[in-house]
């Protein structure tokens, strides 16, 4: 009578829920499940594409010692300096280099206060050594800055050979950006996030008025006076010309996109060593133990690496009796 009632119960379960009940023979350590009053439901795992994301705030800045104030014109110019020289307007950088040679260093080595001090006499001495015939500087009417952005000379408007006064602006807001090669956004992140952020990762930059895409150019460690440690993310992009200097922007750092699989919590098993695994079923109804890496979880599921599309995993279901060294499971 008891067996008859069990048979009726199974029949009703299949009729109502549309499940088909299958049996498979145990393999290996699956024998540890024998004697438990559980039925295992075999379920196709589903995947999601998950990207690691970190949100930070950053400030748009310009490279140190590279913000130039042109007092003679009364306008603020944010221009990267590569070389100073008396040259023809719109002359290509390659032609200028041929004339001047290695007179001046690259922008990263330029010391603006030193250059400001008696530029004319300094260049007169250098060029005098390079060329047989000294140039007559009194006849020169303009000075230009060669920009590394596009290889062409930028006109700073210096009439009648008057000296230009250059000075560091010290945090002045710029209404326009003439060259963005060295423009960057920087912001601090936590030590936890710093471990997951690498150079070259994609980022999305957004403010109330503009947005841009870029990538991380560097990560540096900052130790505060109190001993606190933070990490500064720095990124650069020509698209930053849409923002203002000193503007605070939101940065979304996008890590490597991974194909994670959603697994019910009841399917996850953790062994004594702390490794996580699930049981899968193959086409011949054999059980296989598969090691997985848990990335994150919610109330009902864990999201893991280590599975593949089409895998059937075993998860605990309603209480039923396992007998005759076989485990009954249902495919939904």
From TrEMBL:
Example GO CC term: the record gives:
efflux pump complex
Q: Gene3D superfamilies under this entry?
A: 2.40.420.20
Q: Which residues, by range, are in coiled-coil regions?
A: none
The protein's GO terms of the molecular function aspect are: efflux transmembrane transporter activity
InterPro entries in the cross-refs: MdtA-like_C (IPR058627)
Q: Where does the record place the Multidrug resistance protein MdtA-like C-terminal permuted SH3 domain? A: 263-318
Protein name per Swiss-Prot or TrEMBL: RND type multidrug efflux system, MdtA-like membran fusion protein
Q: Which organism is it from?
A: Candidatus Deianiraea vastatrix
A Pfam family found in this protein is RND-MFP_C
**PANTHER family given in the database record:** MULTIDRUG RESISTANCE PROTEIN MDTA
